[in-house]
Amino acid sequence: MTAARTFKGLLFDLDGVLYVDSRAIAGAGDAVRRIKDRGIRCRFLTNTSTLTLASLHRKVQGFGLPIEPHEIISAPQAALRYLQRQGGGACCLLLADDVRCDFAQLRQVEIEQAEDIVLGDIGAAFTYELLNRVFRRLMQGGRLIAIHKNRYWETECGLRMDIGGFVAALEYATGREALVMGKPSPDFFRVALLDMGLEAADVAVIGDDIDSDVGGGQRAGVYGILVRTGKYRQAYVETSAVRPDCVVDSVADLPRLLESPS
After folding, report:
1. Where are the domains of the chain?
2. Maximum separation of any 2 CA atoms in the chain, in Å
3. Which of 75, 129, 159, 229 has the most CB within a 10 Å radius?
4. pLDDT of the chain along its 262 residues, tens only?
């Protein structure tokens, strides 16, 4: 922990910072409440690609977290907004059933007819045959839109491989980069800054992923705070090229790190 600083806004990662799977981080709700009581604007950023916004809000409410629906900014929503801006061409949604509901207005086709292939977490549905179908379509001119590119995340049963490995495999095989919607894309963080109406210098991000949360935020110009919960592993932090501006044991320590606004 370093000396206290004043911020006008905070960007919280959800899973790993405020909860892990179905278990809330001790003191998380009280920390968010105390921070909001100081008049600090908050947004809650997530790469979660399996839940609609409504489902996400129900989940955080179940943990007793004082979070409003409009304060949640998800990577799937960023992808949806992008596709809508592009005119909503033919797309294939490789997404969990729940989150697909948010994309219902888009024209959906099979992989072989898709202009855009949107890739999220589909768990056991990842097979060689599926990836090979995506590979062939990309080689024919299709475009890969990745909800995010996380390596792994923490569950109550330990670490679990995330979709980043599948995205990287398709990029390597095709020689083409995916368009990444969520963290660590600096554009994703800029969406949150714009939503809060704040400059990057007045904002900090709090995350358990040194690369996606802290590194992505720093590239967007915000202050990076790493928590030692969730997927945090000291050995990985030591090998990362990213250097957090501050490290705390838990989000519960955050209120005393911050100065009260004058």
Report:
1. 9-75+186-257, 87-180
2. 59
3. 75
4. 454 578 999 999 999 999 998 899 999 999 999 999 999 999 999 999 889 999 999 999 999 999 999 999 999 999 998 898 888 789 999 999 999 999 999 999 999 999 999 999 999 999 999 999 999 999 999 999 999 998 888 888 888 899 999 999 999 999 999 999 999 999 899 999 999 999 999 999 999 999 999 999 999 999 999 999 999 999 999 999 999 999 999 999 999 888 544 4
Place of tokens 């977290």: 65
| Distance (Å, whole) CA 245 – CA 237 | 13
Asked if the 87-180 domain carries CATH number 3.40.50.720, the reply is no
Helix (H, G, I), strand (E, B) or coil at 249: coil
Query: Reduced to 3 states, what is the DSSP secondary structure of residue 189?
Result: helix
Q: What sign does the dihedral 221-75-110-122 (CA atoms) show?
A: positive
Q: Which of 149, 177, 182 is nearest to 163 (CA)?
A: 149
Do the domains at 9-75+186-257 and 87-180 have one common CATH topology? yes
Judge whether 113 and 133 are in contact, CB under 8 Å. no
What gap in Å lies between CA 157 and CA 166, rounded to an integer? 22
Neighbours of 46 (CB within 10 A): 25
